[in-house]
Design a protein that fits this description.
Elements (H helix, E strand, L loop, with lengths): L13 E4 L4 E3 L7 E6 L7 H11 L1 H6 L2 E7 L3 H11 L5 E3 L4 H5 L3 E2 L10 E2 L2 E5 L5 E6 L9 H22 L19 E3 L22
């Protein structure tokens, strides 16, 4: 099935996190969410991606956003992975691939292993009502998302909220903040795009490198 479309309600799910505690996506309603599917722990690119999101949490929190990482890895491995990189957001185990299927991000025969299905590296930005407002799905597992485009998509959600608040108070309506969906070689960026494409592999800000 194709990936969940922009404008659709994000499928809800409950999965166990790295501490074996149930995690339900819909309990984050009221917050913006960066839902990041990744194929495998301790695999280089995934380590870098999750660490960049880790180092972005302060900025994301400022716009009422959080990150959730999803992979098909078992919870024991996720616990070690989270501890090694000191990740400050939940990692959840989709060991039976139900959520990966719901979101249309299955990657069969991952790593040359027949029959082994991993998550396709992908990012879905959800607004506080759980609606997908931006998405990116890779066409090759070694490619990373455009982190600047993710940042822009999350910032756009804050713009939506601020404009809504102004309208509710009868104040002036601010000029729309465009959602810039980057078009680059790291995969297909989906959304309402406008403006100049942002450069690939640009981080959220300082401290985006892996910790030793």
């Amino acid at each position: 099935m194709p990936p969940v479309a922009v404008g659709s309600k994000a499928p809800d799910f409950t999965l166990n996190d790295s501490d074996n505690q149930p995690f339900t996506l819909s309990k984050l309603q009221g917050k913006n969410v960066v839902l990041a599917f990744f194929p495998a722990i301790f695999s280089g690119v995934c380590d870098r991606e999750m660490c960049i999101f880790r180092d972005s949490m302060a900025g994301l929190n400022q716009v009422n956003a959080t990150v959730v990482g999803v992979s098909a890895d078992h919870r024991f491995g996720l616990k070690e992975f989270k501890a090694k990189h000191q990740l400050n957001f939940p990692l959840v185990s989709d060991w039976n691939r139900e959520v990966i299927k719901k979101y249309g991000v299955e990657w069969p025969n991952f790593g040359g292993m027949p029959g082994y299905t991993a998550a396709t590296r992908s990012v879905f930005v959800l607004d506080k009502h759980g609606v997908v407002r931006w998405s990116w799905v890779t066409d090759a597992q070694g490619k990373e998302p455009d982190y600047a485009a993710v940042k822009s998509a999350v910032a756009d959600l804050k713009g939506r909220r601020d404009r809504r608040d102004l309208n509710d108070r009868g104040g002036p309506t601010a000029a729309p903040v465009p959602l810039i969906a980057a078009r680059h070689t790291t995969g297909a960026s989906v959304g309402s795009a406008s403006g100049t494409p942002l450069p690939a592999r640009e981080g959220f800000g300082e401290g985006e490198h892996l910790r030793p």
